[in-house]
Write a structure and sequence with these properties.
The chain has about 375 residues and is of the alpha/beta class. Helices cover about 25% and strands about 20% of the residues. A hairpin with a 3-residue loop joins strand 14 and strand 15. Helix 2 packs across helix 3. The structure holds aspartic acid.
Length: about 375
């Protein structure tokens, strides 16, 4: 773990936090008669979490109807979350979104782009064990996420005015996170970016890694997303007809190619010809590495150089989740193709570290 230069939080006792429960394991309790896990009634939140009464700030809640296992999330649910946040933006100091862990990193990535110029915390959390289980991680995750959402700095501004994930003691930038453990409590990690906070006996923040909002800019809530995107994961032996079929999906506008290592792909002429043909048809092809740590550098090997020459653009060290969400929003806003290609290479909300930045500031290996 890298060294954290952290500060003591200052919880604002007048803060108002909105808790948005979308579904997932966190909000489940065991039916004492049947033993089946059921969504608990959020009206009775304080019965299950009497600790909430001890907060000095207030917590209201909104429950999705119906609540969802996060495997069922789609862009309409993201829009619903953005709408709830927009409708309540001026009345609350921060938002905590309770969400299933399975697709939490996708939702966090999407929200980070849909909530432009965010000035308040939007913290996603969940749990590996239901809130009604004795050994649950839900209480700790929820209580700490609420505290973080209410924390202010010495100027009275929210300490974490960005979309983040809090999970098992770690606060992470949402569009850098990936679910990496299906069994343990430490379900998430940001492999290419330091943790932005950590909880222990205190909550500490690493403020140099937290986004600073431009107070002069208005917060904009985006709803337009284009879903005509596909992820193509390469593997040795991938067949020409498979690649051809993917690149010719009706209506497809962008393809994320999950490549090897620093962004390498097969050099067979059929493969490069198929890619060139797709680029000529204005399909955006983004190179994301299959490696969880590090990023794409298409100048390192001939195999990468050939991809770059064919018109593939680098996704640097973005996660697949972030690249997908970014393409959905950029294509959804009808920017022209060249504009989208430029914006894919620029960090919009801290979702990527360009090669030159990586060389200047080595964030890798510190985590
Ligand atoms: N399948 C559940 C979900 O993602 C798992 C969880 O909540 O952790 O909704």
């Amino acid at each position: 773990m890298h060294f954290l230069s952290m500060q003591d939080p200052m919880i604002d006792s007048n803060a108002r936090i909105l808790l948005i429960y979308t579904g997932g394991t966190i909000g489940m309790v065991e039916n004492p008669e049947s033993g089946i896990l059921e969504t608990f009634n959020f009206e009775h939140l304080t019965n299950h979490l009497p600790e909430l009464k001890r907060f000095k700030f207030s917590v209201d809640n909104i429950v999705f109807n119906p609540t969802l296992d996060s495997a069922r999330m789609n862009p309409d649910h993201w829009r619903k979350m953005v709408k709830v946040i927009e409708d309540n933006y001026n009345d609350y100091d921060g938002f905590v979104v309770l969400h299933g862990t399975d697709t939490m990193a996708y939702t966090a990535s999407a929200l980070s782009f849909m909530l432009q110029n965010l000035t308040k915390p939007v913290i996603l959390t969940g749990a590996q064990l239901p809130i009604g289980k004795l050994r649950t991680d839900a209480k700790e995750n929820l209580i700490t996420a609420l505290e973080i959402a209410a924390d202010k700095d010495e100027m009275g501004n929210p300490i974490v005015p960005e979309v983040s994930i809090f999970f098992q003691n770690y606060l992470m930038r949402g569009n850098r996170a990936t679910k990496m453990n299906a069994d343990n409590f430490n379900a998430f990690k940001t492999f290419n970016y330091p943790y932005i906070g950590q909880s222990g006996v205190k909550i500490w923040y690493d403020r140099k890694y937290i986004l600073t909002p431009d107070e002069g800019k208005k917060t904009i809530f985006h709803y337009r997303l284009d879903e005509n995107i596909v992820v193509l994961k390469l593997f040795p032996g991938i067949a020409e007809n498979v690649v051809e079929a993917v690149l010719n999906i009706k209506g497809i506008k962008a393809v994320i190619v999950e490549t090897y290592g620093s962004g390498n792909a097969p050099m067979e002429s059929w493969f490069l010809d198929r890619i060139r043909d797709a680029v000529r048809r204005d399909i955006i092809i983004v190179n994301i590495t299959q490696c969880p740590i590090g990023g794409v550098d298409m100048q390192r090997y001939e195999t990468g150089v050939e991809l770059a020459k064919a018109g593939v653009i680098s996704g640097f060290d973005m996660t697949t989740e972030a690249a997908l969400a970014k393409l959905m929003i950029l294509i959804g806003h009808n920017y022209d193709i060249d504009d989208i290609k430029i914006r894919m290479r620029i960090p919009l909300v801290g979702e990527l570290t360009r090669l030159e930045d990586r060389q200047n500031e080595r964030v890798y290996g510190k985590i």
